[in-house]
Design goal:
By secondary structure, the protein is mainly α. The chain has a domain at 35-63. The protein has one helix and no strands.
Length: 63
């Protein structure tokens, strides 16, 4: 490990649903909340993409 490794920002820890939260600091909890919010946004975008595809297919087959 070189001295340069210390300057790199650490990758946020992934969150496991149902994990014990009692040992996490407020900063760690904030980080996990941010990760989960990003994941929710990603999931909602994928859901909308699939719903749009479904609506397009339904429209095609109803004609």
């Amino acid at each position: 490990m070189s001295f340069l490794d210390d300057d790199r920002q650490k990758k946020p820890t992934a969150h496991e649903i149902g994990a014990d939260l009692s040992m996490l600091s407020v900063d760690e909890l904030d980080s996990r909340i941010g990760l989960l919010r990003q994941e929710i946004t990603r999931l909602e975008a994928e859901k909308e993409s699939k719903a749009a595809g479904r609506r397009a297919a339904d429209g095609l087959f109803r004609s």
